[in-house]
Amino acid sequence: MIDLDFPTLHGIGFKQHFVSQLAAAMPRHRLARVTSVQRDGFTLDDGRASFPARCARFVSTGQAVVGDWVLATPGQGDWWIDCTLDAFTRLSRRTPSGSQVLASNVDTALLLMGLDNDFNPRRMERCIALVRACGVEAVMVLTKPDIGSEVEGRSAQLRQRIPGDVPLLSLIPAQQLDTGVLAPWLGAGQTLVLLGSSGVGKSTLTNALTGSLQATGGTRHGDDRGRHTTTARSLHRCPGGACIIDTPGLRAWQPDADEDALARSFDDIAALADQCQFRDCRHESEPGCAVRDVVDADRLQNYRKLLRELRRAEQTALERIAERGKWKVLMKEAKQRGRDKRGG
Ligand SMILES: Nc1nc2c(ncn2[C@@H]2O[C@H](COP(=O)(O)OP(=O)(O)OP(=O)(O)O)[C@@H](O)[C@H]2O)c(=O)[nH]1
Ligand SMILES: [Zn+2]
């Protein structure tokens, strides 16, 4: 077992959860957290100092991501990561080739969306589903209230659409007074990740909360899109003892969820569906539907779309081929019927 300096480690997000995994740790081991990942190495922080490290040959480089806790040993003038501790949350998204872990050991995700042209309730619903499927608390943060349009209408529209237990805040990331509303999530030992499109204000908010100086960028004229100023994820410490993970703007938000996890982000639909006249109601044109007239039509459509994507992603390549084959047969039969009709 190694000596653990709890107050120091707590300042960089260490939790009781990891203690049982340290039974086999050797005195030569240094316990530290990954604060950034480069092509050929990592930056670690043990609460006292930040230092570079590399992955020991038997540990795969992709294994440790920002937010992970690792055990490193010294050797040949470098620090080497021996193992990664099991995380209590792994924030991931689905990608065409499987899934990608964005950050580890995160308590809260601040989902930033601009009240300018960035505003997009469907994307926010996706984002909430993605975060909740990973067991991370979602908090919605609307930025650019000073330059956005229809600010009040848009905020009210979102409040109506997103699950009631997701807090919704609005702030200007650069203003100290504004960022005070985030205090409930910034307790010592907490880790937050900032997610949102490029240019929405993630790095500006990181700077305001940590007092550090991340590069920030402007937005493009005309469409308010960002310039992808941040290119890698990185973990920063706040003076109050919380950690913030800044991320580059994401374009694709594919929840890495199963149907149950997705349904939990749309639990208003599931609850109402219990009252539909037909148990297999698709909430389209069936009589006695309890969902259609109550749930926002666009929200319902978005849920269906997410469900379709998820089912498709869960299909194996063979199932997809079989499905295509089934369609081909059906099309052929339909064509034949057409020909028969014309012929006879
Ligand atoms: N007026 C106004 N400008 C803002 C607000 N939030 C962010 N900005 C500006 O928007 C620009 C982009 O902000 P960043 O913090 O770099 O955005 P980002 O989300 O980190 O962008 P990427 O690093 O590209 O992912 C900067 O010029 C900020 O000053 C806001 O609430 N109001
Ligand atoms: Zn129905």
From TrEMBL:
Compartments in which it is found: Cytoplasm
Residues that coordinate or bind Zn(2+): 276, 281, 283, 289
Enzyme class: hydrolase
Record keywords, A-Z: Cytoplasm, GTP-binding, Hydrolase, Metal-binding, Nucleotide-binding, Ribosome biogenesis, RNA-binding, rRNA-binding, Zinc
Domain EngC GTPase: from-to ranges: 104-251
Binding, GTP: 143-146, 196-204
PROSITE patterns associated with the record: ENGC_GTPASE
Gene3D superfamilies: P-loop containing nucleotide triphosphate hydrolases, Probable gtpase engc, domain 3
Co-factor requirement: Zn(2+)
Pfam families per the UniProt record, alphabetical: RsgA_GTPase
Domain of life, per lineage: Bacteria
E.C. no: 3.6.1.-
Location (main, coarse): cytoplasm
Region (Disordered) residue spans: 212-233
Entry's cofactor comment: Binds 1 zinc ion per subunit.
Family label: Belongs to the TRAFAC class YlqF/YawG GTPase family. RsgA subfamily.
The protein's role, per its UniProt record: One of several proteins that assist in the late maturation steps of the functional core of the 30S ribosomal subunit. Helps release RbfA from mature subunits. May play a role in the assembly of ribosomal proteins into the subunit. Circularly permuted GTPase that catalyzes slow GTP hydrolysis, GTPase activity is stimulated by the 30S ribosomal subunit.
Subunit structure: Monomer. Associates with 30S ribosomal subunit, binds 16S rRNA.
Protein name: Small ribosomal subunit biogenesis GTPase RsgA
Source species of the chain: Massilia hydrophila
High-level lineage: Bacteria, Pseudomonadati, Pseudomonadota, Betaproteobacteria, Burkholderiales
GN (gene name): rsgA
